[in-house]
Amino acid sequence: MTFEDTIGRSRPREPAIKIHGAEAFAAMHKAGRLTAAGLDMLGAYVKPGVTTQRLDDLAFQFAMDNGAYPATLFYRGYTKSICTSINHVVCHGIPDDKPLREGDILNIDYTLIVDGWHGDSSRMYGVGEISRKAERLIEITYESLLRGIKAVRAGATTGDIGFAIQRYAEAERCSVVRDFCGHGIGQLFHDAPNILHYGSPGEGVELKAGMVFTIEPMINLGKPGVKVLSDGWTAVTRDRSLSAQFEHQIGVTEQGCEIFTLSPGGLDNPLAAR
Known about the structure:
Elements: E1 3-4, H1 22-43, H2 52-65, E2 69-70, E3 82-86, E4 89-91, E5 105-114, E6 117-126, H3 132-150, H4 158-171, E7 175-176, E8 180-184, E9 191-195, E10 212-215, E11 218-220, E12 226-228, E13 235-237, E14 243-245, E15 248-252, E16 257-259
Antiparallel strand pairs: 1-8, 2-5, 3-5, 4-13, 5-6, 7-11, 8-9, 10-15, 11-14, 12-13, 15-16
Helix pairs in contact: 3-4
């Protein structure tokens, strides 16, 4: 689940960044694998006529059947097990009884708590046949995620991650959402550091082996501006352009990183797997 970027606003001093050991990495691999398996399962139900509430029900039951708990359920007043963001919704869309339509694009953001540890991931899905511009946006967003991950290693900085994402996305004539960001994660859902999806090389926090966080770029076909609707959760593009997002949870190593949320079925980009 995306964290709201509060850079430049009044806030308490950011907490110390946790450094995790091998046991914590193993626990988060377990949580991440289950989350990824849940997203694999949900993808089979993304079809015209299916409601996002139906997907939410499936996500909740999957958690219960596997000894896990959906981290978003009753988190800060949120009442669903997943976030479902359709078309121009950037993030935190709330499942409801409206059916999906042919040509929609859908992000499902799913976080499970397993033995006290979080696994957090999101993917884009096409509903039936989608337009070429929507397909292209999804391709660019997934590649943006991969380029951000490739920048991760001990000694690099959070600015290196953001720069890799921003440089690629903007070269493809898309824009990077700045209002929301990735975040540290572990036994807490949202923790330090914030992972901005834009930036400059060498800036920000230095990455150290044992850090764990999400990278989850939100890329728009239009301008980067967003607004939050009156429900207090749903963020949409101000110009109503399409938006897409992918997310992985990763742990920093000396050589690079470990991805905790890889799909067991090879469905990390469901569009490519069609």
